[in-house]
Fold:
Amino acid sequence: MSTPQTSTPRAQPQTYSVKSFGCQMNVYDGERMAELLGAQGMRAAAEGEAADLVVLNTCHIREKAAEKVYSDIGRIVKNANEASLPKPLIAVAGCVAQAEGAEIPNRAKAVDIVVGPQAYHNLPQLVADAAAGKNALDTDMPAASKFGALPARRKVGPTAFLTVQEGCDKFCTYCVVPYTRGAEVSRPWGDVVDEAKALIDAGAREITLLGQNVNAWEGEDEKGAVQGLDGLIRALDRLPGLERIRYTTSHPNDMTQALIDAHADVEKLMPFLHLPVQAGSDRILKAMNRSHTTESYLRIIERVRAARPDIALSGDFIVGFPGETEEDFAATLALVSQVNHAQAFSFKYSPRPGTPAATMADQIAADVMDERLQRLQALLNRQQHAFNAATVGRRTRVLIERAGKLPGQMLGKSPWLQSVHLQTEAKIGDMVDVEIVAAGPNSISGLALA
Ligand code: 5AD
Ligand code: SF4
Structure:
């Protein structure tokens, strides 16, 4: 687990900070690492206070995200020097840790700990090793799940993430996830339900079930019956105190009719679906190894809309995949126009080491990608604004998440995951009845109803 002694021993850290990049699963992992360090008697460094241990919970999905960790490390060292403080212990966690392993301390000498996403339950031991002057590295993907070794959930805000599934077996040709997060694994039914109960006891009103392929979740319920994500959602629906359920990210091939049906009749399941299609050209989808077509995706959207007509659709898009012609890209724009998104994420293709697409012929020039991304984002932004505008006049409920900048202003989310501003005396965690009165490109305004 650890390599021989490489530096002078130092005191065990008393304070920590955890900074997460990338996806919501990293946010969840970051929270759990913080809880784990807290259970060791360490405390979170206050705002502006230099922590004794800095955990950088990294993302490897695109080159820009992966490189960010190195500039962050440089900044942490510089800040410590300028303040004449000792360099903090630096831990690189997350997907860059998994992908680059021992190369990280070779490239950035200031790094003391490298810990992969399936090994962070070992963080306390790694911190002790690093403080004792040993370089500590753990990128194992053990058969036993890390979750059992983590402390119970104690204190959370009104919206909480709950990882139910990790890893991916789909091997899209552009994607590092199958390598950094490993094979598809579902957490057991009982563990998920227990964690959901603990989150509700700790103050959660909304739970978002997380997984790289969350709709591939499968498990046996307490009676031994095999259940899919829909069964898990229905079990959570029965938990008193929980108001809202969401899930992300889904793959079109795992979108079962049972899950679609849950959107029709589970009241707590919010009318929102993040279902990435990535591109609108079947030729490109095939080269991406997406194992679905534009047609099969459109049929799913049709069935989802039949079950829940007001559903807000979200997705991910990649422009400039190797070999993408102007015609292929036009097919993506056409698909987006046909579907209408409430929001979506779009990215320029980024070649990732070890993935099949990185060595494909016909890599697309940066300026072509830039221009395509601009056109796609302009269309998606118009759709988002139109979606927001179409909700004006509706009466709905908002879950209050935090205070706004203006006096008396609070911010929350609508069922369709729109950010809502409103004037109210309601507190964080309250559900407020509102009428939507105005819409902008990125948020809406609500009037609290008495
Ligand atoms: N380049 C650009 N975008 C990528 N994504 C995954 N891998 C890459 C890559 N190599 C995008 C996909 C995925 C989202 C999380 O990130 O759209 O759905
Ligand atoms: Fe990556 Fe494809 Fe798996 Fe999504 S489905 S995590 S894009 S390999």
